[in-house]
Design a protein that fits this description.
The structure holds two protein chains of two kinds.
Chain A: H1 11-16, H2 19-24, H3 27-41, H4 49-62, H5 77-84, H6 116-134, H7 145-157, E1 161-162, E2 165-166, H8 167-183, H9 195-200
Antiparallel strand pairs in A: 1-2
Chain B: E1 4-11, H1 15-26, E2 31-34, H2 42-45, H3 55-59, E3 72-75, E4 83-84, H4 100-103, H5 113-116, H6 118-126, H7 144-158, E5 166-167, E6 170-171, H8 195-206, E7 212-213, E8 223-224, E9 230-231, H9 253-256, H10 258-261, E10 267-270, E11 273-280, E12 287-294, E13 299-310, H11 314-324, E14 347-354, E15 372-374, E16 395-397, H12 404-410, H13 423-433, E17 434-441, E18 450-458, E19 464-469, H14 474-485, H15 487-493, E20 498-500, E21 547-549, H16 564-582
Parallel strand pairs in B: 1-2, 1-13, 2-10, 3-19, 13-21
Antiparallel strand pairs in B: 3-4, 5-6, 7-15, 8-9, 11-12, 12-13, 14-17, 14-20, 15-16, 16-17, 18-19
The chains are: A mainly alpha, B alpha+beta.
Organism (chain A): Gluconobacter potus
Protein name (chain A): Gluconate 2-dehydrogenase
Domain Glucose-methanol-choline oxidoreductase C-terminal (chain B): 453-571
Chain lengths: 232, 592
């Protein structure tokens, strides 16, 4: 199967998709360049400015830049999440959302009346209010990276509530959506340059392994392709 | 407006409904099939490459039940208040034409014959006192020999790939030596084995177990089934579970039955038709038809019929019986009634082995039904005497094609972080160099595990939701722990660099937030005694003789095998007896 490379793919996206580039190249320079580029190229439709800054910082802490490649913000996870907020999923139309809403044992699952978009709005506002109280009026995005990480760990442990939302519930929502953004097809706004798939070694929409059922443990030799035909 | 009348109504367009509709139209009946979801066609839902979309498919549940309209409530114990299952997670019922048969993986087993008479066998070998207090261990009331022609028929319709062990008593292949005797070969040879599965095969053999190729309703070659419909060869794309197979390789009602059925002028399929209840006559002995809501016009429609087949997903069957007043609802306090009794699930835990950095498992390569398994610890294939539990698990590598969102959100496993520093490195290692081994086991029935109507929550149509009361029990936890212990030597024989064993913990509570399996069973079980079963051995309601209830709802226990093969065989079995006996003389086929 051959799918032609998309002509829309730009040079930087192509570089971004190259694992060796990230592992051995001076990726910080490129990361900064792409950061400014992507920040200009997408205006959030749902999140306000303060929420957007929170989301960019949180995504980057959950899936950070390291020797294996760029962070989730650079890969478009915030854009992905913003776009998801105006889907049936974001509006809670895939969930049973009839009352009464009662708290129960955690193993009985999500019992809040909030669809994802409302959950984010409430929890981010509460998280920033908490940070302001404890860090001299700063927001989450203004904190130093180690402080952001420490705070996310507090949320993950779930010992506090963010508005009506248990912090752990919010953290899991954020972690889930961030990783969805990094690893879904780029048509949803994330996984820029197919860098998420390249990192894992996932070949995307190739979906034909007739000759690769069993190659006795050899690595699969082809890079990923997206639904639109973008390659990396 | 007068109600319209047809010969038979079939509720639900999944495997059971499609098989019954096909058989009944062949018998000359006019059949209306009612499906509450949308029309589904591989040309649309399986369109390449747009179908190769994990977010839209398995993550946002493109082919699954939309819970916003109807769900279940769940509690673990009788004294708890049940709360709604608001987000799909632990189990994933289908919706739309094909039902769960469109999004399934394709593992296509027969049955372990001992499981059909599990109570009789356990009592015969270990005595009555071996059965724990509160366990409702029962027989199906049908034997493997009776069902064999229908397993054979189902495999030929599904285009099942596999390797036999014996055919008509003679060794015919290197298949599962614990599998029951067959009357014929599999329609197609076994699927190829991915690297992980081949490692499992040799390691399991080295430690003395008996590996075999999983029987798969994924076509290992081109195939034309007895209905004249065609399947393409599976290319291991990995988009089986949760997807409509773009290669037409995974058996589904949509590919394997409905193309033939739709040609028959006696058959009518109505989608967006949500059945509210089966209508009964004054003394509740006969069904007169059904009332359904036309979801397009929002109008209620009455449809009359001589015969009503309830063949929706397992728990929808039980829900419809309770909403319709068919039979007596089960009461766990008094231990009376049968509808909702013996609600069962399966135990499933996953262990992981990491290989050397030079060994790539290419987890994205896979087929939902393919793999290598052992049955050494399934059913009654081992001595339970010193172990003190009932049941067992097949163990397998079933590399179905691991997609990146599922892998990434599931985390790298072991003690590795699930986000932040160190996450990526561990995730890459896991995705490139690990494999998983499942213990996919039985779950017994218990007096305080059942289905009834919820007192508080209702669906979008104002009807009470179904309530599940379910928890893991000591017997099944100990079974799982024992079998998982048998996985460890296999992993060691593989030369794994490290591993983690997944098993149920002592006292573990059922967690609705984590996917386990969609193999729910029971609640409208078959049997020989109307006091302890809902339907007789022909899946005919003991109480309303022109109602048949087809599906995994008939299983008295959750078995170690995947249920679809058994559901299909029971559907053909029931259809055969409806055609040859019931239609000639409608009425109870077994006297209560």
């Amino acid at each position: 199967m051959k799918i032609p490379s998309s002509t829309r793919r730009n040079f930087t996206a192509g570089l971004l998709g190259s694992a060796s580039f990230w592992m051995y190249g001076g990726h910080k320079v490129w990361a900064d360049a792409l950061q400014s580029e992507s920040a200009q190229s997408y205006n959030p439709k749902y999140f306000n400015h303060e929420e957007w800054l929170f989301l960019n910082a949180a995504c980057a802490r959950i899936f950070p830049a390291d020797a294996h490649g760029p962070d989730a913000a650079l890969l478009g996870a915030p854009e992905f999440i913003d776009r998801q907020m105006d889907t049936p999923y974001g509006h809670g139309e895939l969930w049973y959302m009839s009352g009464p809403f009662k708290e129960g044992a955690p193993n009985l699952g999500y019992q809040l009346s909030l669809p994802p978009r409302d959950l984010y709005r409430q929890a981010i506002a509460a998280a920033n209010a908490y940070v302001r109280d404890h860090h001299q009026g700063q927001t989450f995005a203004q904190l130093a990276i180690p402080e952001q990480i420490a705070l996310l760990k507090v949320f993950e442990q779930g010992k506090m509530a963010l508005g009506a939302v248990p912090a752990h519930t919010f953290f899991e929502q954020l972690r889930q959506n961030t990783l969805e953004g990094v690893f879904s097809d780029p048509l949803y706004g994330g996984n820029k340059g197919l860098a998420g798939w390249t990192l894992l070694g996932f070949p995307g929409a190739r979906a034909d392994f007739m000759d690769w059922v069993n190659q006795k443990g050899a690595p699969y030799p082809f890079g990923p392709v997206s639904i639109s035909g973008e390659t990396a | 407006m007068c109600a319209k009348k047809v010969d038979a109504i079939v509720i639900g367009a999944g495997w059971a409904g499609s098989i019954l509709a096909k058989e009944l139209t062949e018998a000359g009946l006019s059949v209306v099939m009612l499906e509450r979801g949308d029309e589904r066609a591989t040309a649309v839902e399986g369109d390449y490459p747009s179908s190769i979309d994990e977010l839209r498919g398995a993550i946002r549940h493109r082919l699954f039940q939309n819970l916003s309209q109807s769900t279940v409530t769940i509690r673990n114990t009788l004294d708890q208040e049940a709360l709604p299952y608001r987000r799909l997670a632990a189990f994933l019922p289908g919706e739309g034409v094909g039902g769960a048969g469109l999004h399934w993986s394709g593992v296509h087993f027969r049955v372990a014959p001992d499981d059909l008479a599990l109570r009789t066998n356990v009592v015969a070998r270990y005595g009555k006192n071996f059965i724990p207090e509160g366990m409702n261990l029962q027989d199906y009331g049908v034997t493997y020999e009776e069902l064999e022609p229908f397993f054979d028929k189902a495999e030929k319709v599904f285009g099942t790939s596999g390797e036999p062990y014996t055919i008509k008593g003679k060794i015919a292949g290197n298949g599962n030596r614990f599998a029951p005797d067959r009357s014929d070969v599999f329609p197609l040879p076994a699927m190829g084995e991915v690297y992980s599965a081949s490692l499992f095969r040799s390691a399991a053999a080295n430690v003395g177990y008996h590996p075999y190729a999983l029987p798969a309703a994924n076509a290992s070659a081109q195939y034309t089934n007895p209905y004249g419909v065609q399947m393409g060869p599976c290319n291991f794309c990995g988009y089986c579970s949760g997807y409509d197979c773009y290669m037409y390789s995974k058996a589904s009602p949509n590919v394997n039955i409905l193309p033939a059925l739709r040609q028959d002028p006696k058959f009518t399929l109505i989608t967006k038709a949500h059945v509210l209840k089966v209508n009964l006559d004054a003394d509740k002995k006969k069904a007169t038809g059904v009332s359904y809501l036309d979801l397009r016009t929002k109008k209620q429609v009455e449809l009359d019929a001589d015969l009503v087949i309830i063949s929706a997903f397992q728990f929808h069957n039980v829900h419809l019986m309770l909403l319709s007043g068919i039979g007596q609802p089960y009461d766990p306090q008094q231990n009376t009634g049968t509808v909702g009794r013996n609600f069962v699930y399966q135990t499933i835990t996953t262990s992981r082995a990491w290989l050397s950095p030079k060994q790539y498992t290419n987890l994205f390569v896979g087929a939902g039904g393919a793999g290598v398994a052992i049955d050494d610890f399934n059913s009654m294939n081992f001595d339970h005497g010193p172990l003190g539990f009932v049941g067992g698990s097949p163990v397998w590598v079933n590399q179905a094609g691991v997609k990146p969102i599922a892998a990434a959100t599931g985390g790298p496993g072991g003690k590795a972080p699930t986000w932040g520093e160190g996450y990526k490195e561990a995730m890459v290692d896991t995705y490139r160099h690990s494999l998983t081994i499942d213990a996919h086991g039985s779950n017994m029935a218990y007096r305080d595990v059942y289905l009834d109507l919820d007192p508080t929550y209702s669906n979008a149509y104002g009807q009470p939701l179904l309530r599940m009361t379910f928890n893991w029990k000591d017997n099944d936890i100990r079974m799982n722990q024992y079998v998982v212990g048998k996985i460890e030597p296999i992993i060691k024989a593989m030369g794994a660099t490290k591993y983690s064993l997944g098993m149920l913990k002592d006292g573990e509570v059922f967690d609705t937030r984590r996917y386990q399996t969609t193999h729910l069973g029971g609640g409208a079980i078959m049997g020989t005694d109307p006091k302890t079963s809902c339907v007789n051995r022909y899946l005919q309601s003991w109480d309303v003789s022109n109602v048949f209830v087809i599906g995994a709802s008939a299983f008295p226990q959750g078995m170690g095998y995947n249920p679809t093969g058994m559901v299909a065989a029971l559907a053909y079995w029931a259809a055969y007896h409806i055609r040859t006996t019931y239609l000639k003389n409608p009425g109870p086929m077994v006297q209560a």
